[in-house]
Every structure is written in C-alpha cells, then in structure tokens.
Amino acid sequence: GEQDDELRPDLEFVIHQLLLVAKMSDFPDELGRREMLTLMRKMVLVPEIPENNIEAIADIIRKLSINEQDFIRIMVEVVSDVRELAPTVTNASPDDVRLEALLVGIKSLIIIKYILQRCFDPLSEGSSMYGLLTECVVPAVQSSETVLQEYGIECLALCCLLDKSLAVDNIILFAQAVKQGSGELHAKGLAALLDIAFMYGIADLAPSLGEPSDFVSLLYSELESEDERIQATAGEGIAKLLYAHRIPDPSDVLEELLVLYYHPDTSGNDALRQCLTYFFPAFSYMAHDNQAVMQQVAVRAVCRLAGVLKQQNSDAQSGATHGQAAQQIVTWSDPRILDAIAAMSSSSSVRTSVRMGTYSQIAVDALKRIFSESPPTRKVLVQMLNKLALDENTPHTHLQQMFVLVRTLAQQGLFSDMISRNALAKFEVLLLKLLEVESADDVNLESWLEEPEMVPIFEFISSLDEDDDATSSASDDDEEAEHSQSPPESDQEAPERSSRNVLTGLNVISAIPIAAKTRTRSPLKRGREQHIEELNREIDELLDTDEDDDDPENYLS
Fold first, then answer.
1. Is 236:272 a contact under the CB 8 Å cutoff?
2. CA distances from 371 to 301, 365, 379, 406, 504 (A)
3. pLDDT in tens, 16-26
4. pLDDT digits (tens, 9 = 90+) for 465-497
C-alpha cells in the first residue's frame, strides 16, 4: 500500500549498504560462499531491483568467483534466468507486453554492462560473452527503441575495448551516433569514440572513417557543442588522447584546447575548466617533447585569444585577461620548471641550456607576428616578451635575431602608446645585457651577415621592405627601372648585397628612448617627464583661453 511505497527508499538504502558490507567481506568458508552466491543470484531476479544494487551484486559475484572465466559463466547464467523467468502478464494489452519486454531487455543490458566492465581478457568468438553480444547487444543497437539503443551502444563499446577487430568494424556506427544521435545516445556514442581511440590510437581507427584529420575534425566539432556536458566530455577525452600521445599532430589540437580554456563562452562550464586546469601543467611538465609542443603553439594561441578576450580585471564573470592568459602559457612553456620537477624526483640537476632554444623561439615568433597583427594584439605580444625568463642560457643566435627584429620594430614605429614603447625598450635593455654590450651603437651588425642562422631573419625583414615598396609612388618605380638597366650581379654577390641593403635600412635606431641610454634617467622617468610636458602645454592653452575671455572686445562681439 501507500505505507510500503513510503518505506521503499529506506529499505533500498539499507539493502545497498548491506551489499557494500558484503563486498568488503572475506569468504574463506566454502559453504558460506555457495550460500552467498545463491542469494546474489536470487536478488538479481527481483523485478524492481535498483541499478546500483545490481552493480554491487556484480562486484560480490566477481569476488566469489574462482577466476574471470568462472565469473563470466555465472553472470551469463544470470542473464539467461532474467530473460527466461521474466513475469508474464495475462490478458494484457500489446502496450503492456511491449513494456514488459522493454524492461527485461534493459535489465539484461545493465547486467551485461557490469560484466564487461569487470572483464579484461580478450573477447573470443568461442566465449560466452560473444554469445551475449550476438543475442542481446546487437539486437538492442538495431532496435527502434531509443533507450535500448543507448544501452546497446554502451555495451558494444565495452566489447570493442576487448577486441580490436570488433572496434575497427564498428567505429563507423559510433561516428553515426555522434553525428545523427541526440541526447543520451549522442553522449554515449561520443564517449565510446573517445574510449576506443584512447585504447587503440587514432592511426589504427582512422582508415575506417577516412584520414586521421577527419577523425580529429569530428572530435573538434564536439568542442563547439552548445551542450556543456558534451563539450566537457569532448574536452576531457581529447586531453586524455593528447596526454597518451594518441593524436598524430598534437600542436593544432593543443592550440584549440588553449583557446577553449580561456574563451568567455566556457566560463560557466566548470567540468571542462576543471579538467583543463589540471591537464595543461600535467601535460607540459610530463616530458620535454610535450613542452616543446606547448612552446610551438604559444604565440598562435595568444594571438587568437587577443580577438576574444578583453583587457579587464579578472573576476568570476569576466575570466582571465590577456596578460593572465599569456603569463600562464609562458609559465607552462618554461623548461626550467620542468627540470626543477625532474631534479626533485631524481635528485640530480639537469642543464637547461639545451632546451632554452625552443623556449626563446617564442620571443622570435612573437616579434615576427607583431609586424602583421592588429594594434591590440601587438600590445599583448610586446608585453608577453617581458614575461619570458630569458637568461645566459639563451642561444646567442636567438638573441641576435631578437635584437634585429626589435630594431626594425623601433624604426617602423608600430607602437603609438607609451606602455608598448616602454615594454619594447625594456626588452631591448635585457637583450643588450645578454649580448654583453653597453648600448645599441656597440653592436656590430656587419659581422652578423656572415652567419647562416641570421639569413632567415634578414630575408623576413627584406620581405617587409618589399611590401613597403609595393605601395611606393610612381617615381620610385621609375628609379627602379633605371636601376634595372645596370649590369646584372653575379649569383654570389646578390644575396650579400640584399642582406646589406636590409642592414642599411635598419640604420642605428634603437627602441630604447634617449633617456634610457643615459645613466641618470630610466625609460619610466622619461615617460613621466613627457607626460608632465603634455600637462604643462594643456595648462598653457587653458590660460591663453582665459585671457581671451577677459578681453572686452570678445564681449562686444
């Protein structure tokens, strides 16, 4: 009656706690083991037994079994009993018969799911589980009932984890569930895809779907889902694939995860943010190859984030700012932190000079991107330069490349705000210190032309000059036409002349303000003095305006 319905939740809770106690107990007595096994099999046959109790019973039977094969044999008999001893309804309508068959099918699939979760031996065609696959799982996947399809997809995915050939044959089915399914079917299809890819790798599964890039693109599309649970599942699965080196080209995938992590649209997805918060430092500090991938995508990710983030204070709603995102990415890219962690575990010091090359490449890439990015992005990149912890272990070639790029930026005057100019000046002061020269005038750029490592930088600057020449006036074109009439140069003289033309275009212009070159005034002091001069000019203009207002002729007019 009504009183029994009120007591039912309490009784189910008590029974579940007793099952948990039994799961933690020992059964040295053979007679007691048999009695417990008989009791568990009877409890599973109860029509309205909760699903969490079925899971606890499966754990107990696994503990009572001799080995895995004995456990599978017992549980297959239980599934057969559930299907054969299902209560029949006399004088029932077709809907009642259909509902009863549906409940029996769901219960059978739940038991099969818990069997597969506790099995580790490969699935063979002669095993008892293979019979359940053909009799219960496959018909459920092909059923028109959505709930049976959901449980069938989940059981089939567990079977695929035990048999690689079965996974390759059915990977298209899981992809269709992701593309065409909705709700729980979509979620379980996505989870199946990610689990199978983690087990066998994308390279072995991709031929069934096309190229590996097609498989990764399918996972990419789930990161843009409006359902936060789907988005979190996709993000967690892709993070696991990256961590296990299951993705052939990890750089693009890591860049997408970085953008997704800082994107304002994911600020409310706590499950995704929590997973990625743990993943990025764990991935970067696990191996030097992983950190090299982080260093490779650092500048690209910061440039993309500059288009979606606003420079504002961090709070619960706004999320991270440009500076905070750049600082975290630079920290994850720092090889000294990785070496410090390795030294703590191995009690031996590791030299970082070898790996500072990829770390300092971030500065070179950032300086190159400044020439082509928008002013807001330039400001973020130039501030990012001073967050890099460059030291004496930085390769000398990279210091030379940075210095030439900084000089070129100063000459072109791409920064209109004082903050960016001071940041560039501060970075050049650091470069001069690491190059062990007193000022920019002491740098011998002529000697750098003969170094092969500097050729790409001079070619890059030369390409910038060619872009400027394309927009020059017609008079410049006439001069170039006259110049073209001169005798052609030899193949050996042409590259050297091109590099010297680039060097001549640089002149001796430093990003450091004049005040920074003296020993008495710093760039910050120089900036304050300029600000004071601007205020004095504004005050003089206001005084001149007041004197004009006091003139009687102005009142007459």
1. yes
2. 17, 11, 11, 11, 19
3. 999 999 988 88
4. 666 555 554 445 544 554 444 454 444 444 444
Phi-psi region of 245 (alpha: psi -120 to 50; beta: other; left: phi over 0): left
Q: What is the mean pLDDT of residues 522-549?
A: 59
| Residue partners of 463: CB distance under 8 A and separation at least 6 | none
Model confidence pLDDT, tens digit, residues 114-137:
999 998 888 876 577 888 888 899
pLDDT for res 395:
87
Identify the residue whose tokens are 């193949």: 491
Rg from Cα positions in the chain: 35
Query: Contacts for 216-223 with beta carbons within 8 Å, 24 or more apart?
Result: 216/247, 216/252, 216/253, 218/175, 218/178, 218/179, 218/193, 219/193, 219/194, 220/256, 222/178, 222/190, 223/256, 223/260
The Cα 162–Cα 519 span in angstroms is 72
Token digits of residue 33: 């083991």
Average pLDDT over residues 329-350: 79
Three-class SS string for 12-64?
HHHHHHHHHHHHCCCCCCHHHHHHHHHHHHHHHCCCCCCHHHHHHHHHHHHHH
Mean pLDDT of 397-422: 87
CA dihedral angle for residue 320, residue 324, residue 326, residue 327, rounded to 10 degrees:
-150
List phi, psi (to 5°) of 163: -145, 115
Question: Hunting for tokens 């009877």 — which residue is that?
Answer: 42
